[in-house]
Amino acid sequence: MVVGRWAVCRCVGIALGSMMLVACTGTLSSRVDDERDAGGRVDAGTPIALDGGGGIDAAPGGDAGTTSDAGIDAGPSDPCASVSCGANAACDPRTRVCVCRPGFVDDGAECVAPPPGDPATRSETEVCEAWRGGHVENASPAWSGSGCGPGSMAPEAIDDTLRRINLFRWLAGLPPVLDQPSEQASQIECAVMMSANGSLSHDPPSGWECYTSAGAAAAGRSNIALGYGSPGSAIDGYMLDRNVPSLGHRRWILNPPLGRVGIGFASPSRPGQCLSVFDRSGPGSERTWTAYPNPGPAPIFLAEGEWSFQTHGISLSGEASAIVVRVSDGSTLPVTTRQTGGGGPPNSLVIVPEGWRPTAGETYRVTITGLSTGELTYETTPVDC
């Protein structure tokens, strides 16, 4: 706006407290007894790759410098007088930045009418209803089995997992994914191995307890997690991607052409979850970028970790960065940024709030600089659902 490849990787898990995630997918683990469903931790993941003002002077008369016919002065200068905005954009006098007029969104080059389903056009009510509905889990138990046998997953567990994945994709403005039944058996064997060994690996050794070649192959093409009490709750951990510099789990789940996922879950010991993410059979999206938290109303959960801007049809230069402005007072908030890339999913700019926490009900204006199309601006409003 005015202002403002495919390689399989292997990752080393990072454990914090009792949880961990790994993405190259990635992994995540926690102790079931004290943090079963807490937000997970992620290893190194996929390799890398933000006043005018004025007023009227004193009333005429009274002091030696005024005359009886003195009147109102010329008033304050217009802070936007020297700012020129493109079509469908206007200058914000608090920040002297051009922003899209209501009803238009920034596509990276100009302000245009939003496509159907654009996150920026949704209401808080619509978003919160989707958020609450997306966290319903009906499977109890999610898996039945014992020992090294693959056992079986409840159909409701598959539904719970798909519902959670598609919630996050919907928030980002991406199409939903479907289950890949042909992947289920190997993904469950993968989950059994992770659970039985209490560890995570994309390349499990043949000496592992409950080892199978099919399960090991599945681990190499999946996000993998340990210690989450249900297959759906692990998706939240993948999206948070704590302590995973690459944000590999999140990037795979928000990969536009992702069409089908294989889902595995097992709990002979600590619960293990495997999710295949290399499929590219989906319809994709006309969107050239997505953001986390999403533009428009966004559940506060999304704003509480590292933010990210993921590119699809545009590219980030080596100097790309971000500016975050709190709209209510025009304050530019301190952030640090880094770029991620490689390993398969699209490149991202990671935006890390420094010394401040997002507040529900506040709107934050994010300007991404250093894009192939120039600069791009969007606004996100965390909401307490």
How are the elements arranged and paired?
Blueprint: E1 21-23, E2 26-28, H1 32-35, E3 89-92, E4 97-100, E5 105-106, E6 111-112, H2 124-134, E7 143-144, E8 152-153, H3 155-172, E9 178-179, H4 181-197, H5 213-219, E10 222-226, H6 231-240, H7 248-253, E11 260-261, E12 263-266, E13 272-276, E14 289-292, E15 296-299, H8 300-303, E16 307-311, E17 316-326, E18 331-333, E19 335-340, E20 348-353, E21 364-371, E22 374-383
Parallel strand pairs: 9-11, 15-22
Antiparallel strand pairs: 1-2, 1-10, 3-4, 5-6, 7-8, 10-13, 12-13, 14-16, 16-20, 17-18, 17-21, 19-20, 21-22
Helix pairs in contact: 2-3, 3-6, 4-5
- Order of secondary-structure elements: EEHEEEEHEEHEHHEHHEEEEEHEEEEEEE
Which stretches are poorly predicted, pLDDT < 50 over at least 5 residues?
Answer: 1-20, 23-27, 29-71
Main sheet properties? 5 strands, antiparallel
Query: Using DSSP, what is the number of strands?
Result: 22
Kindly estimate the percentage of residues that lie in beta strands according to DSSP: 25-35%
* Rg, Å, rounded: 25 Å
Q: List the total number of helices.
A: 8
Q: Which strands sit side by side, in order, in the main sheet? A: 2-1-10-13-12
Mean pLDDT: 82
Oligomer state equals: single chain
Q: Fraction of residues in helices?
A: 10-25%
Alpha-beta content class: alpha+beta
First CA to last CA: what distance? Answer: 31 Å
Shape: elongated
